[in-house]
Amino acid sequence: MSSPQPQRPAHAEPRPVHKVGRKLRSELNDALQPPIQYGEMETYQAFLPGRNTGLRSVDNAPVVRRIGALAIDLAIYLGSMLTIIVAFSIALGQPWLLALILALPLGFFLSQSVFDATGGTIGKRTMGLRVVGPAHTPVDFGQAAKRNAWLLLPLIPVAGPVAAVGVGLWFSGVAKADAFGVAPHDRHARTRVVQR
Questions:
Q1: How far is 102 from 81, CA to CA, in rounded Å?
Q2: What main location does UniProt list (predicted)?
């Protein structure tokens, strides 16, 4: 007859913490901490490869305001361009002009790039945001075009608009988790969106 195995008290040994749980706890702690002021060197190094860990910077543009700025820009652009295209199509009696609607993503990309090169779009300025380079240097058109290249995804038939929404959500998540709010498109272009 075997003797019964002694049961270990529940409090004797803690359960192992999984890597995912530790990572989530760390992200939650970062999100709940007040933002801090980083020096110029840390701000400059924000564009190096790899995720920026640590507390978020005090001058980060909140993701909600970034999404709001993009929504304002899109509403202004689509409202004005659709009005112009439809008006010309009706006025000239040329229904083929409605095909210009297919070029709207290209025009939006160009307008975003031009405005970002001047410090920010109408939506960003309305939301109190601006686009800057390393150590708050001005952004040129090339950097702005690299930053906004993802806006050309809707040119891909059928899957393009869905892909653009998916990529936008991915960028939002990465920017929220990054200490300097740098998403992949910002890192590629060496830009940041900061509060004015």
A1: 11
A2: membrane
Q: How far apart are CA 194 and CA 196, in angstroms?
A: 6
Q: Which residues 6+ apart lie within 8 Å of 130 measured at CB? A: 119, 120, 124, 193, 194, 196
∠ CA(192), CA(71), CA(84), 5° rounding?
Answer: 120
Tell me which residue has tokens 């995804």. 153
Phi-psi region of 54 (alpha: psi -120 to 50; beta: other; left: phi over 0): left
Domain ranges of the chain: 58-195
Helix (H) or strand (E) holding 28: helix 19-32
180-190 pLDDT, tens digit each: 889 999 999 99
CB 144 within 8 A of CB 113: yes
Query: What's the pTM?
Result: 0.75
Pair of tokens at residue 75 = 């509403």
Task: Quote the CA–CA distance of 113 and 149 in Å, as a whole number.
Answer: 9
For 14-52, write each residue's pLDDT tens digit.
Answer: 555 577 777 777 766 666 677 788 887 787 777 776 667
The end-to-end CA distance of the chain, in Å, is: 78
